[in-house]
Amino acid sequence: MTYINEVINATKDKNPNQPQFLQTIEEVLTSISPAVEQNERVLRKNVILERLVEPDRQIIFRVPWMDDNGVYHVNTGYRVQFNNAIGPYKGGLRFQKDVNLDTMKFLAFEQTFKNSLTSLPMGGGKGGSDFDPVGKSDDEIMRFCQSFMTELYRHIGPNMDVPAGDMGVGGREIGYLFGQYKKIVGDYENGVLTGKGLSYGGSLIRPEATGFGATYFLEEVLSRKGESIEGKTFCLSGFGNVAWGAAKKISELGGKVITLSGPDGYILDKDGVSAEKVDYMLEMRASNRNLVKDYAGKFGCEFVAGAKPWGNVKADVYMPCARQNEILLDDAKKMVALGVPILNEVSNMPTTNEALAYLQANGVLVAPSKAVNAGGVATSGLEMSQNSGRLSWSADEVDRQLRSIMKGIHTQITDALDSYGMEYNLVAGANLAGFKKVADAMLAQGIY
Ligand code: GLU
User: Fold this and answer.
1) I need a labelling partner for 103 at 20 to 30 A (CA). Which of 60, 94, 163, 216 fits?
2) Could you give phi then psi for residue 305, rounded to 5 degrees?
3) Is 126 one of the annotated active-site residues of the chain?
4) pLDDT band at residue 200, thresholds of 50, 70 and 90?
5) Cα(285)–Cα(145) distance, rounded to whole angstroms?
6) pLDDT for 133-146, tens place per residue?
7) Which ligand 1 atom lies nearest to the CA of residue 373?
8) 90 C-alpha vs ligand 1 centroid, how far in Å?
9) Among 372, 398, 422, where does a domain finish?
10) By the 8 A CB rule, do 25 and 8 touch?
11) What is the Cα–Cα distance from 378 to 213, expressed in whole angstroms?
């Protein structure tokens, strides 16, 4: 049995109830086989793969909070500190009702590779809670964030672990979390969290960064074929912060976003989501209703209940911006039949492994999320740099650096593929490039 298969099997035996974690382990490890085979003796001796799939630390804690009627509730909080070989743990916090340890481990593992690709010194971590923010009042959100931080503060720090937002955690939540951290710790350490408001150490362009970065990465992919965003149609899912940034940049560059989605279904806007419609996406998120049909009501376009755009709407590019595993094998089959040529994954692991294999076998160009959405965490890294230097850069400066980081990620991927004599496969290339840096750092630092 190969070294990779041994580690995959052992990970399966050890984590039988963690399908999402196992999915990403299988996807990543199988695609780095050229690197592992080339250096197998050294990697084996240093148990690199075994250490890579075992988080450094998994913190699970109780989060009690009181609702507006004076009733108490208890949720579970998590922080998985996966790997800090190349820098302090870094990654978002997700508040969503189906969050569990499996979700946290899959996201933290992905984050390790993603952060490595950004070229900035950040390790991988992820956290969150099964708290459901839908329908909660502002005061309830604040009390929950305060209780969450009352435990989390002891595990994080600007040089140790730097959380940020993810689904269900945006600028408002980061503000409440930071306020509580500051109250407990005393020092004004604003580098402990990213995604902060501008008045207390946040960075310009951070809210837009994931969507902007995803669009810049796609520009690199398209330019290889002599193509551009202009004139292309896009299906997006979600309508939160990530989809908002992508819609804004795509419409700025002359592309047309024709779908958005929510838990209730999707909207089809043939005129394109642009200008004030993009701004309205922010209102939809702030309303806490979590319904995309509000968009159709406001702008008079088609709303399809209980479905996703995948395989139902033809476009030049699909960009899932909602959550993991939203493109299943059946969707992939319909997508190929419709002739959609590019899948630019923005949400973390939106495609199941079967769907991914089918798409790649049928000539769909897949750009993987760990490269495509790395602009969010990369700009968090830029926020950390500004905090350390007690500086604040202009929007143009941050945007320029973001664009150059996304371009750099694409170059790292093609360089990695070239070095193994492989053809243009962005999924394998991203894993190979991300792995190399982390593995080199782990080897250099010895067994710990
Ligand atoms: N949650 C985002 C991600 O998945 C951003 C993390 C961060 O900024 O630390 O990469």
Assistant:
1) 216
2) -75, 145
3) yes
4) very high
5) 18
6) 999 999 999 999 99
7) 10
8) 8
9) 372
10) yes
11) 9
Ligand 1, atom nearest to 379 Cα? 8
Ligand 1 center to residue 308 CA distance, Å?
Answer: 24
| Ligand 1 pocket by Cβ (under 6 Å) | 90-92, 164, 166, 194, 348, 373, 376-377, 380
Q: Which of 205, 236, 240, 203 is nearest to 389 (CA)?
A: 203
| Shared-domain flag, residues 182 and 279 | no
Tens of pLDDT, residue by residue over 206-250, are 999 999 999 999 999 999 999 999 999 999 999 999 999 999 999
Inside any domain, residue 427: no
Residue 357 in any domain: the answer is: yes
The alpha carbon of 8 and the centre of ligand 1 are apart by a number of angstroms equal to 26
218 and 132 assigned to the same domain = no
Segments forming the whole domain that contains residue 109: 55-188
Q: In terms of pTM, does the model score above 0.70?
A: yes
Point out the catalytic residue in the list 90, 105, 126, 249. Answer: 126
Select from 47, 53, 58, 162 the least CA-distant residue to 109. 53
Q: Ligand 1 pocket: which of 126, 161, 166 to mutate (most atoms <8 Å of CB)? A: 166
Query: What is d(CA 258, CA 357) in angstroms, rounded to the nearest whole number?
Result: 26
